[in-house]
């Protein structure tokens, strides 16, 4: 039997609860105050002769007085001493039991560790014989069936098969799947996938995904919007691996926000497993804002310029974060048609989005927007916005540089952006 931390805590509470209750009762009974007043019909306790003689022997003083009170209390309270003995015995017994539990737990862990190492060596050899030695294949299958008889042994075998399949492809990987089915290990994984415990669900989803088993897809889909982040992430990963056409089809069903680390993981899966990349424009219609942002990021990463109409449409999205991502993606993909829309929405955007718009103008140089950028130098008072506008003008080449030089040497009066133009043109602020 596996003893977890909560089990040990329950055992300790069972031992200490009666002790604590007894101590409370004793304190209430024997320490209501420094003196006890006898009630009607009760006799006032007398000091035993031994205590009186002791009182005669001690001298006056603070220490002697304290010693006297302690001795009197013990002499008058034999039950209190009994309770102390009980507490001490309880403590010794509890510590002894706890020590035995710890030693047994450590011993069990050591035995399991040794057993796992032994089984790994056995399985590795048998799996190699099954995969690469045709003569020994039948015997290896029988040996694996014999060794993998218990639940613990079967779990170790599943883990070994998954570790082996990670680095294999083609026919060899398919043979591992066939062996997995022949040994009936699929039922073990399905049982975990449909368990009521989330950590077993995670393990079951992972095993089924590696072995390309779709029998639990409905259960995996149910976990897509789980409040448990780990379970939700494992469900997403499993659906990506189990997809033949569109690995991100499940995004249409996502209701909870897609965290940044989940987006990174999903992206890495496509790269690592060389999966088919879908057209991410279809996810830009999602009502889940995090999915829209993810679709924009992926369209930028995979250079999907065919999504240009959808990306430009999102420049007018009601959510500021979506607009900011769309603005940056326009720059990443060099979408020239977006510049007109960016000019139109500039004045309504918050500061961060204005900066991003000007960075996009820098990345897509177009001399047709020089007058617009020049007007921003006069209109904007923020230095960063002026710097970005100056860089955007400079990046247009000769027309922009000529206009900046004229502005810098203008005699009509000093402008605060003239010093910025001077530094940008000589490359000091890059």
Name its key features:
430 residues
Q: What kind of sheet is the major sheet?
A: none
Helix coverage percent: 55-70%
What would you call the quaternary organization? single chain
Distance between the termini: 66 Å
Low-confidence stretches: 22-59
Annotation field: number of helices: 21
Order of helices and strands: HHHHHHHHHHHHHHHHHHHHH
Mean pLDDT: 82
- How much β-strand is present in the residues? under 5%
Helix-strand makeup class: mainly alpha
Shape: flat
Secondary structure tally: strands: 0
Q: Using only CA atoms, what is the Rg? A: 39 Å
Describe the protein's architecture and organization.
The protein is mostly helical. It has a domain at 374-430. It is 68% helix and 0% strand. The protein is built from 21 helices and no strands. The chain has helices at residues 5-30, 49-57, 62-76, 78-132, 137-147, 151-166, 170-182, 185-193, 198-210, 217-222, 229-241, 260-273, 289-301, 308-313, 320-332, 338-345, 351-363, 370-379, 383-394, 398-408, 418-425.
């Amino acid at each position: 039997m596996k003893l977890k931390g909560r089990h040990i805590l329950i055992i300790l509470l069972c031992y200490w609860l009666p002790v604590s209750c007894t101590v409370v009762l004793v304190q209430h009974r024997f320490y209501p105050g420094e003196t006890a007043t006898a009630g009607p019909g009760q006799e006032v306790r007398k000091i035993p002769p031994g205590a009186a003689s002791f009182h005669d022997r001690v001298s006056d003083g603070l220490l002697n007085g304290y010693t006297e009170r302690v001795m009197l209390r013990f002499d008058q309270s034999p039950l209190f001493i009994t309770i102390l003995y009980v507490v001490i015995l309880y403590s010794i017994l509890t510590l002894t039991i706890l020590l035995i539990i710890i030693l047994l737990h450590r011993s069990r862990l050591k035995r399991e560790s040794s057993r796992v190492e032994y089984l790994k060596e056995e399985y590795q050899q048998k799996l190699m014989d099954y995969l690469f030695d045709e003569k020994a294949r039948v015997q290896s299958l029988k040996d694996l069936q014999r060794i993998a008889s218990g639940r613990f042994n079967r779990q170790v075998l599943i883990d070994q098969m998954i570790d082996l399949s990670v680095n294999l492809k083609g026919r060899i990987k398919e043979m591992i799947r066939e062996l997995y089915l022949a040994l009936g290990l699929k039922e073990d994984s399905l049982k975990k996938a449909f368990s009521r415990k989330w950590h077993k669900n995670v393990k079951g989803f992972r095993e089924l995904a590696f072995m390309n088993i779709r029998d639990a897809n409905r259960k995996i889909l149910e976990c897509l919007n789980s409040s448990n982040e780990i379970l939700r992430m494992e469900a997403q990963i499993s659906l990506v691996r189990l997809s033949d056409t569109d690995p991100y089809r499940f995004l249409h069903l996502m209701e909870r926000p897609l965290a940044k680390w989940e987006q990174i993981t999903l992206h890495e899966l496509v790269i690592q497993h060389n999966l088919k990349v879908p057209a991410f424009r279809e996810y830009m219609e999602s009502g889940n804002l995090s999915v829209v942002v993810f679709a924009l990021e992926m369209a930028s990463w995979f250079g999907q310029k065919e999504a240009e109409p959808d990306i430009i449409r999102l420049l007018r999205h009601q959510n500021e974060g979506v607009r900011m991502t769309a603005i940056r993606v326009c720059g990443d993909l060099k979408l020239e048609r977006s510049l007109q829309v960016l000019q139109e929405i500039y004045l309504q955007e918050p500061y961060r989005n204005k900066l991003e718009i000007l960075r996009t103008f820098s990345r897509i140089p177009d001399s047709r927007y020089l007058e617009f950028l020049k007007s921003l130098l006069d209109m904007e008072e923020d230095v960063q916005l002026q710097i970005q506008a100056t860089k955007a003008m400079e990046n247009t080449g000769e027309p922009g540089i000529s206009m900046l030089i004229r502005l810098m040497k203008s005699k009509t009066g000093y402008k605060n952006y003239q010093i910025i133009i001077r530094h940008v043109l000589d490359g000091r602020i890059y």
